[in-house]
Design brief:
589 residues; alpha/beta; Recoverin, domain 1; 9-stranded mixed β-sheet; two-stranded antiparallel sheet; 23 helices; 10% strand
């Protein structure tokens, strides 16, 4: 058949698949199409070859326009958009149906395995999709249209991203930085669009795995894949209907739509940091970042408390531990992100990233905004369980910041001088651990189940993860007042719990008190521990003191009726460390 007589609708469909515009569809382009239509299914070589044969590929594995037309006619005459959209809707319906029956399941006690951006031929994981679903074809169609007719205004950008309610943050940024307006539309945005469109190509042979709950595993992503995923998040290519949040406990937001529409200064600041990430990449030579980003889910199970049904580290392991308390160094100045070479603690939400894409502006959200590659973790990490942590290795910091909370502002460019591995991977490791939120009586924080939960959570983050985040690579943990802000944790107790978990994990601790008075009390405790008889202050000894202290609190209430009210006002028991000091002093008697 003369190619000129082939209907326009068939040509449009063919060109949609022929992403390199070579005039034929090759294996990679066909695989990208198959993964778009069925994003959670694994397609091996046999499946791709069978599809090539069905579509009339030649001896070189190439499908011509005429062969594609014959296949199209045999399958029915729908327009390109109808054909793809209908197939997408069918797959989404199947996807939702299957996953709704699996939500909440998890597997315990699985040995750590490395999924180095590799396909595992199992089709599905238990409870969550094996692989991250790609954005739907409609989103890529919008992006291709933006290549042909680049947006030159905020209104045109709004049509591209499909965000209702205006793009308040974008408008504020462009109005406040005239030079940004020029560079954004002329170079940064076109770069982002091209980068987002590369996602099917970049992941065709190696889909991005999802790290299921209850299983220790790590995914290793080339940083160009990470950048493409981030571009799709900013350009709102991923569906953001929260269905995966409801069904699979994935983070509630998968796009930056809330940031784009917000007019709050702190949200505008975060968006500016994400845009700056793409500014830097667009200007870099070479344009593609080198190295990898590792996202690791760490699941630690020890024997639970008898009869409690707890999923956390049990009391026997802590009570019997003879591990000495490791070195604890106080850092009165600076912040956790300044601790180069340390495993840096992220005071996390149980949903990784917290409100980085919507409303949050404290420690975790700021870290993810200044180091945007961390934000890709939201796409592959369901909610953390009580005995889990998430470790992100290789994320580069691109922006400075000023302020905190509602005063957060973009502080300009940041040049990250962290040492790199030979392959270009930054030697930065961030561990996300979520503390329990507290309200009411401080005594509840000393209940054994609650102590075990926090110890287990910290240990899941601090233990030897081997590989890229091993104890050898990062001998020291950098942390601070974990869970002691809005979550209401008792800072003295949280410091001691982290010290115990770090000691059990055989890592040293660098503590940033951020101006809190705990600095002076910890200084006294460190001095006392160092002066105690050798081998007496162990993790097991400290656990026993934690178990005894609630009785001390009850005795204090009986003798001082105002004690409980004072503790509630102080969000803790100020006598805790002074009591520990007395217990240590008694060892010399």
């Amino acid at each position: 058949m003369d190619s000129a007589s082939i209907p326009t609708e068939v040509r449009e469909a063919f060109e949609h698949i022929d992403t390199d515009h070579s005039g034929s569809i090759d294996r990679g382009e066909l695989l990208a199409l198959l993964r778009t239509l069925q994003p959670t299914r694994y397609f091996g070589q046999e499946a791709v070859e069978a599809s090539l044969r069905e579509m009339g590929a030649d001896e070189h594995g190439l499908i011509s326009l005429s062969a594609f037309h014959e296949w199209w006619e045999a399958g029915g005459k729908l327009t390109a958009s109808e054909k793809l959209d209908k197939k997408w809707e069918e797959m989404q319906a199947r996807f939702d149906s299957v996953l709704s029956g699996m939500a909440g399941k998890f597997v315990n006690d699985v040995e750590a395995e490395t999924m180095e951006h590799q396909v595992v031929d199992d089709g599905w994981m238990e409870g969550v999709p094996s692989f991250l679903p790609l954005p739907p074809p409609q989103a890529f169609a919008r992006l291709r249209a933006a290549v042909e007719s680049p947006p030159k205004s905020v209104d045109a950008l709004q049509k591209l991203v499909g965000v209702n309610g205006g793009l308040g943050a974008v408008q504020i940024l462009l109005d406040s930085e005239p030079e940004l307006r020029t560079s954004f539309f002329s170079s940064t945005l076109p770069y982002m669009v091209e980068l987002a469109l590369r996602l099917p190509e970049l992941t065709a042979a190696n889909p991005v795995p999802v790290l299921e709950q209850g299983t220790s595993a790590v995914v290793k992503l080339p940083r160009q894949v990470v950048a493409s995923l981030l571009a799709n998040m900013l350009l709102c290519s991923f569906p953001d209907d929260r269905s995966l949040h409801r069904q699979l406990e994935m983070p509630p937001n998968r796009t930056m739509a809330p940031l784009l529409r917000s007019r709050a200064p702190q949200e505008v600041a975060k968006l500016r940091m994400f845009i700056h990430f793409f500014e830097r990449l667009a200007q870099a030579t070479p344009a593609e970042p080198s190295g990898y980003l590792y996202i690791r889910r760490s699941c630690v199970n020890m024997e639970p408390v008898s009869g409690s049904g707890s999923e956390n580290v049990g009391s026997k392991e802590w009570a019997n531990s003879t591990a000495p308390l490791t070195t604890l160094v106080l850092e009165p100045e600076g912040g956790i992100e300044d601790a180069v070479g340390c495993l840096q603690v992220d005071f996390a939400n149980e949903y990784l990233g917290g409100g980085v894409l919507c409303g949050g502006c404290v420690q975790e959200e700021i870290r993810f905004a200044v180091s945007p590659e961390c934000t890709v973790g939201l796409l592959v990490c369901p909610r953390m369980l009580g005995h889990e942590a998430i470790v992100i290795t290789g994320a580069e910091q691109f922006s400075c910041y000023t302020g905190y909370g509602f005063s957060l502002r973009y502080g300009g460019d940041f040049v990250d001088t962290t040492p790199r591995a030979p392959d270009g991977t930054l030697q930065t490791a961030i561990v996300a651990i979520d503390a329990m939120p507290w309200a009411g009586s401080p005594e509840t924080q000393f209940e054994q189940d609650n102590l075990l939960r926090e110890l287990g959570k910290a240990f899941a983050g601090f233990c030897d993860h081997t590989g890229e985040a091993s104890r050898t690579a990062f001998t020291t943990i950098a942390t601070g007042n974990w869970g002691c802000g809005a979550f209401g944790g008792f800072v003295d107790l949280k410091a001691v719990l982290q010290w115990m978990a770090a000691s059990m994990a055989q890592r040293q601790l660098r503590y940033y008190p951020f101006g809190d008075s705990v600095h002076g009390r910890l200084k006294q405790l460190i001095t006392a521990v160092q002066a105690a008889p050798s081998g007496t202050i162990t993790v097991g000894w400290m656990w026993q003191k934690l178990v005894e202290f609630p009785d001390v609190m009850q005795a204090a209430i009986r003798t001082n009726t105002d004690a409980k009210e004072q503790w509630e006002q102080a969000r803790g028991a100020p006598e805790f460390i002074s009591w520990l000091l007395a217990q240590i002093s008694a060892l010399d008697e």
